[in-house]
Amino acid sequence: MATTTDKPKVMGYLPNDQPPFGQMLLLGLQHVLTMFPATVLCAILMKFPVSTVLTITGLGTVVALVGSKLAIGKYIPLYYGSSFSYIAAVTAIMQAKGVTEAVAPPEVISVVTAGFVCTGLINVIVGLIIRVSGGKEAIDKVLPPIVTGSVAITIGIGLAFTALTMASGTCCGVSDDAGLLTWWTAAIITFLAAFIFSVYLQGKGFIGMLPILLAAIVGYIVAIPLGLVNFAAFGQEAIIRAPQISFPVFNDPLTVTVLVGVGIMAIATIPESTAHLYQISLYVDHLAEEQGKEKYHLDRYIGLNLMLDGLNDLVNGLFGSTAGTNYGENNSLMVISRNYSGPSLITAGIIAILLGFIGPLAEAVSSIPTAVSGGLAIFLFGVIGVQGIALMIAEKVNLYDPKQLAIGAAILVIGIGGNIGYSGGFLPIPLLKGVFPYGWPAIATGAVVGIFLNLITLAWKPPVVRGTAEK
Fold first, then answer.
1. How many domains does the chain contain in total?
2. C-alpha span between 86 and 61 (Å, rounded)
3. Measuring CA to CA, which residue among 194, 218, 216, 198 is closest to residue 208?
4. Rounded to whole angstroms, how far apart are CA atoms 286 and 299?
5. Is 79 within a domain?
6. pLDDT of 5 higher than 60
7. Pairing of strands 426-427, 324-326
8. What is the pLDDT of residue 1?
9. Regarding beta strands 80-82 and 324-326, do their DSSP bridges make them parallel or antiparallel, or are they unpaired?
C-alpha cells in the first residue's frame, strides 16, 4: 500500500520553502513584473511619487511576511501593492488642496497618509477582534464563502475592461485602426505566450514556474519592431537616487475629513483580503497534498492576516506611500506557477525597494509596453475571478439556496456592473457626498450589501426548505 512518502515529486514551492538563490531571484522578479503595472498606475492616479510607492510597498511586503513567520512559524504568501480602493477618497483630498501637478507636494502627501495610518489601525483592530473571537468560524458568520467568493469574482471580472483597454491602447488615447491593430498584436501574442507557457511547461521543472516572466519577455521582444518600446526613456534617471519620504501630519484642517474619507475605505480591502487568503490557502494545501507534505491551513489565520494588512498600511502611511492590499494578480501568478515560497516574495519586496533607488533598473521595468501588460492582465485578472469560483466550489456553497443566490447576485451585479459601467467605478448615489464625493465605490458597496444581506439572515433565520439547505 502506497504511503505519502511514495508520491512522486511534484514541482512547486510551499510557503516555507526557500528555492536556490538564482531561482529565487527570477521568481521574485516575476512577482515584481506582476505587481508593477497596478502599483505604478495607483501611484500616478493618486499623485504619489512612483519611486517612493515602489520602495515602501516593497518594505511593507517584507515586514508583513516576516511578521507572519514570527507569529505562527509559517509565511502567509501574499504580495502587498497599492490598492485602487482609495483612489476616489485621495483624489477628493488632492482637489481640496488644489493640487494640479502630476506629483503632489510632500506637505499634501503628509495629510493624505494620515488616512492610511487610520486604515492600518482599523485593519489591526478588526484582525485582533477576529483572532480572539474564534478565527475562521467567527468570520465565516459575517463573511461566508458566498460573500468572499463573489467578491473575488467581482474583483477579477470587474477589472476585465481595464485589461482590455490596456491591451487595445484605448487607455492611452489610441483610436486609429493602425494603432489599435499594433497594440492588439502585442497583447494577443503576450497572452498566447502566457497560456502556452503556463499550460505546456507544467511538469517541466523550474522553467514551468516562470510562465508570466517568459511571456513578458516574449511580449517585450515582439513589441520592439512594433515600435511600442520607448528606448528614449533610458538614460534619463540617475544611477542611484533617493525616494521621497513624507511623514504623516495630524494637525491639518482636513485631517478629520481624511481620517473618515480615507479610513473608511478599509472596508473594501477586508473582504478582498479574506477572499485572497482563502484562495491561497486552498491552493497551498492542494500542493502540499500532492507533495505528500503537511497542509498549512492558512485559512485559520484570518485575524492575523488582517493584522498584517494593517501593519503593511501603517508602514506605507508612516513613510509616504499609498495604502495597500494583498494582490490578487500575484495570487494568480502563484497558482499558475505553483510557487508559494515566502522567501521568493521577500526577494520580490527587496527588488521593489531597490527599484526606488536604482534609476536604470526602474527604467527597464517601466519600459514594458502597456500592451504587453494588458496581455498579461487578461490572463491574470481572469484567474482572480475563476479563483473565486474555485473557492465557492471548495467550500461547497449551495447555489440552489435562495439565500446564497441573492447574496451572490447582489455582489456581482453591484460590483461588476458598477465598476465597469460607471466612470471610475463609482456608483452615482447622492448620499454621504462628504465621504464619497465621486459616488460610492462599486466593489466595496457590493461587498457591504452582501455582508448586510447575510447579517439579516443571521438575525432573522430563513425557513429551511428541503433540498436547499447547505450541506
1. 1
2. 18
3. 198
4. 13
5. yes
6. no
7. unpaired
8. 37
9. antiparallel
pLDDT tens digits, residue range 206-249? 788 788 889 999 999 999 999 999 888 788 878 888 898 999 99
**In the beta sheet, which residues pair with residue 324?**
82
Tell me 232's DSSP state: G
Per the listing, cell 521621497 goes with 244
pLDDT value at 42 more than 90: no
Distance CA 382, CA 444 (A): 19
**Amino acid of residue 176:** D
| C-alpha to C-alpha distances, 313 to 12, 130, 303, nearest whole angstrom | 30, 18, 15
Cell (9 digits) for 203: 511538469
**Helices of type H across 328-416:** 328-337, 342-355, 359-366, 370-394, 402-412
Domain that holds residue 350: 10-231+250-459
In-domain check, residue 327: yes
Residue 401 falls within a domain, yes or no?
A: yes
Q: Measure the CA dihedral 42/48/50/53, to 10°.
A: -80
Residue 323 within a domain? yes
Sequence-distant (≥ 6) Cβ neighbours of residue 21 within 8 angstroms? none
Three-state SS for 298?
Answer: helix
User: CB neighbours of 290 closer than 8 A, spacing ≥ 6?
Assistant: 7, 10, 12
Residue range 358-377: average pLDDT? 84
Distance CA 195, CA 204 (A): 15
Task: Report the helix count and the strand count for the chain, using DSSP H and E.
Answer: 19, 4
CA-CA-CA-CA dihedral for 340, 344, 346, 352, to nearest 10: -110
Among 301, 308, 300, CA closest to 124: 308
Which alpha helices (H) appear in 73-173, and where do they start and end?
87-96, 106-132, 136-142, 145-158, 160-168
Please tell me the distance from the alpha carbon of residue 30 to that of residue 35, in angstroms, as a whole number: 9
> Around 67, how many Cα atoms within 13 Å sit in the side-chain half-sphere?
19
